[in-house]
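Field reference: sequence -> structure
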Amino acid sequence: MSIGRTGESADGVAGPAGAAGASAARDGGADPHRWWGLVVIALAQLMVVLDATIVNIALPSAQHDLGMSDANRQWVITAYTLAFGGLLLLGGRIADLAGRKRTFVIGLIGFAVASAIGGAANSSGMLFGARALQGVFAAVLAPSALSLLTTTFTDPRERGKAFGIYGALAGSGSAIGFILGGLLTEYLNWRWCLYVNVPIAVIAVLGALSLLHDRPGHREARLDVPGALLGCGGLVAVVYGFSEAQPRGWTDPLVLALFAAGVLLLVVFVWWQNRAPSPLLPLHIVRDRNRSGCFLTMMLAIIGMFGLFLFMTYYLQVILGYSPVRAGMAFLPLTAAIIIGSTQISARLLHHVAPRLLMVPGMLLAAGGLLLLTRMTVHSSYTTEVLPALLLLGLGMGLTFMPVFATATAGVAPRDSGVTSATVNTAQQVGGSIGTALLNTIATTSSAAYIAAHLHNPADRATVVPVGVVHGYTVAIWWAAAVMLLAGLVAGLMVTAKAPKHEAPTDAPVPEPVP
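Structure field:
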């Protein structure tokens, strides 16, 4: 079974590990360093995913230190997700053109530098800029990581285990970010929520240079600059519109203009991709029924999940009075359930059953967990009411993430693996942005309506307001459950792939001849 890599380093010189990997590839054997390579890829992926949430709990401290206004503090989060989601397709194509290992290392180094700048920020503008720069390098790093994973593991059974670990990190990284953010903020300083990326990146760079291998990039192809401008501009406009919908309202002229501009740019982007000589996103990737079903399932699942993170963080700290560390630790069962669902259930079953037979039950379990949370009150018990819901949600997401990643990237030609990986990550980032903005708007609107209807005496404010806030959360969680059910419906109807053992002899992309 050919691995389809040369084992060369980023500069084209094969080191000892590279020579071993290349020899294994020529002999038809597996790369002896593949599991250590998975550790490196997993470290990088964890760093990228948890950085979307690690600063959430630290935000109040950062806001106080740097004198941010309430209106501007959202940019600590939004600057990262905007740059990340908007540039992912471009990052994926750069990985295809320049070589995945090279872009992986550059992404790690750039991410570490941006994190150090953010940690040392002495003004809000400097922090916003550093977060945006993190997003830029994350957009290069994330597609390279998933592409390297698809070319490192070619045996269907091993590939299932590798994707199970990767899917667990992708699903639980946000929760880990809350835990780590709480610990660093409470016991060190909010700046360490950014500084912590530096040692992680250094370890990952050293591991990548010695353990990861990749075939050369396709230098004969050209970068689709018009497509990059249209696609990235459209995604940035849409994500920016959703981020502004919460403070401004859905009918605000700026929000409507952003949505209109984003849709127009994306429509022109699709038109151009049909005519571009070297398209940024080859449309045959999204025309494939299974891949488009996986992309849509991922986006819908993340919409519900990210909204829940936002509500539960505020519910635990503001309503139940948890400290940052205790609130972060409350997410641990969710993280454990995602890991178990991905590595112990999905990874073991995927080569026996069709992917949708894991994805549909997964979304039903996740929706069930959310429905349990619609019953929470200002006096709910974590152990008896919140914990069972988090466990169900985690198992459901774990069952879903792994087959989504594996199915979306299976059978892709090597020159398209980077952009396919980028599309999976784009679905996550866009889903997270939409979920946070949409569900938070529903929650705040419902809370305001409840409080207005029940607050007849100002003396009752201390009692009515918390109840109204929780009411808003539960209304939004009802919507999140509906989105999860929609994700299950999409998976059931669109993802028709069979179990890997019923497909071609290998899941790996067929190696292309090097020009």
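Note: The two ends are 21 Å apart (CA to CA).
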